[in-house]
Amino acid sequence: MSGTRSPNRWLSKAAVNGALVLAVVYMLFPLVWLLTAATKDAGGLLAGNAFSFEGFDLGGNLSRLAEYNDGIYFHWYLNSLLYAGLGALACSLVSVAAGYAFHVYDFRGKEQLFGLVLLGVLVPTTALALPMYLLASEVGVVNTYWAVLIPVLVNPFGVYLSRVFCAGYIPDEALEAARIDGAGELRVFWSIGLRMVMPGFVTVFLFQFTAVWNNFFLPLVMLSDQKLYPLSLGLYAWNSNAHAEPDFYPLVVTGSLLAVVPLVVAFVSLQRHWKAGLTAGSVK
Question: Which family does it belong to (predicted)?
């Protein structure tokens, strides 16, 4: 029996490990291509030898990227950091506060209202772009930073996820103990609830940061001034010009490589909060 189980177990492990290796190769392949292609000039890219480091010119590509059009690429970079960083931070706070309210408080129409939130999860964001543009036009914020920032403050999936985290991480006894000690509801949320649900806050932040950083359609609809573009829209504009001017190809590839850096930094630096947040604010 043991001799039969051992080969089966070995085959199962080999199959799982093989599938994981294939998944890793599949995910890393575009990144490796991007890393090597960013070292090429236009001729090297069009020649089809992007996977070699022959003719290494990463420094030249970075220099041309910084100099083109008075360094507008890094202006787009700052815009993306503003949209994604500030938008994701505010959205995470709003989502956690809403999820906390749905979990802690009882009020008339609570479940019906939460059902509307779940309905919002099913609506694709692209379907809302035109209505949001019309609303932004009525308010007069089209072609401003607010046209991109305000819509990303609301995330129905973040509210749903926050309620799930609150239900799992916030015991009613901890909130009651804080109220008995004289803490107000806002203090209870800020000092107890938010700290206990910090893994949920970080999760919503990372999801929203990634979504806003990669957001393309909303800025395309809302913005016409190139100085307000995020990276996604700016690189798209350059790539559209690359068919007529091949010198844009190295700029697009090098710019795309730099655009990956904040996402990697965000995930690597914030992953520790998933563990740390599990015990933050707990009752001693």
Answer: Belongs to the binding-protein-dependent transport system permease family.
- Nearest residue to 198 via CA among 281, 265, 105: 281
d(C-alpha 229, C-alpha 138), whole Å: 21
Q: How far apart are the C-alpha atoms of 37 and 125, rounded to whole Å? A: 32
Distance, CA of 284 to CA of 281 (rounded, Å)? 9
Q: What is the pTM of this model?
A: 0.86
Tokens linked to 283:
């009752």
Write the CA distances from 147 to 78, 127, 152, 244, integer angstroms. Answer: 16, 16, 9, 31
For the chain, the distance separating the N- and C-terminal CA atoms, rounded to the nearest angstrom, is: 50
With H, G, I as helix, E, B as strand and everything else as coil, classify residue 144.
Answer: coil
CA distance 159 to 135: 23
What's the token pair of residue 190? 């800020």
DSSP classification of residue 151? G
How many alpha carbons fall within 13 Å on the CB side of residue 270?
Answer: 18
Q: CB-based contacts of 280: which residues, under 8 Å, 6+ apart?
A: 195, 196, 198
Per-residue pLDDT of the chain (284 residues; tens, 9 = 90+): 445 556 677 777 888 888 889 998 888 888 888 888 888 887 777 776 767 777 778 888 899 999 998 889 999 999 999 999 999 999 999 999 999 999 999 989 899 999 999 998 888 888 888 899 999 999 999 999 999 999 999 899 999 999 999 988 888 888 888 888 888 888 899 988 898 898 889 999 999 999 999 999 999 999 999 999 999 999 999 998 888 888 888 899 999 999 999 998 998 888 777 655 444 444 44
In this structure, are residues 153 and 85 in contact, taking their beta carbons and an 8 Å threshold?
Answer: no
